Amino acid sequence: MLPSLRLKKNEERRIKQGHVWVFSNEVDIQATPLKDFSAGQQVIVEAHNGKPLGMGFVNPNTLICARILSRSPKLELNKKFLKKRIQAAQGLREALFDKPYYRLVFGDSDGLPGLVVDRFGDVFAVQITTAGMELVKEDIVQVLDNLFHPAAIVMKNDTASRGLEGLPLYEEVVLGELPETLIIEENNTQFSIPVEGGQKTGWFYDHRMSRGRLQTMVKGKRVLDVFSYLGGWGVAAANAGAESVTCVDSSEFALDGVDINAELNGVTDKMSTIQGNAFDVLNALRTDGQKFDVVIVDPPAFIKRKKDFKQGAEAYRRINEIAMRVLDKEGILVTASCSHHMTRNNLLNAVQSAARHIDRTVQLFEQGHQGPDHPIHPAVPETEYIKTLFFRVSASW
Which of 330, 388, 334 has the alpha carbon at shortest distance from 225? Predict the structure, then answer.
């Protein structure tokens, strides 16, 4: 029988409505002291009256001190549980995609809090961000091996969020051997993925649908891809018939990847790269009188914590203002945010404010969301994070 973690009176309402996070200030520490638990320990979460709310795991050292895995108090997190959840996640992806390139597991949204698995054909990149999942790491590897017989499984456990759970940072091939070249296909475009050494798990599947939508708009256009990483937007645009594409990133490693992916798709003659700070590069392009028909602004999260909102929102406003300044007449601005705290309306307001500051008129004509392999848990708003807005930018009316 698993030990109990009891909530204070009236603190179970959010959990009953479907959320899966328990915060440390919601726990009745007189009845169930947090200090009595070890990080990752499995527990039964109870209402103040002792009624079970579900099974999960606990970390007494974090603000989110427990995460619920199942509403059944009879289950435990083991190989059987993992297999069932991963098979369910796989069933959704197989219904959505005809090729094995997608996010296989998306944490809370797939009932596996703190576990992300990206699939690159027969190579799997695994990222664990909770102590509970870390304790069953070997079981996760075994289940993936049994279900998919992969060529390799890589643990990409080098994300800073692991520090909040008291977990070490590391990157390790835990099964098989990585191929020298790992190629995926997305929107009829091929990409070479640096699983080792690349950002996050090596690739960002979340913008797949929006990148595909952009491809329908770029034929014969001059495109600027800001914060390009490996060219997910830019190389796809070139492959869809753009006249020219310029990719901007601060990382030499990323821009080397752009060159590799351009060559892979036979669009090297259309591509150019600029290494540097995005704000500085955009200002320099403006000073040089450079103009583009389409500008994509897909930055990293400018707002990682709620308290950073004011400063981060201003950064979104500024980057979009400079982007508009290098757009030609009736140009298209594609702007995105992966900050959960920057809502769709916040981003829309930032773009509108930037437009009015430089006497432009913007028309929002398309909106994008995170891809379907990043499903949203309706009771956990934190699982929705990607916003993509497509604007036509004109002279002031």
Answer: 334
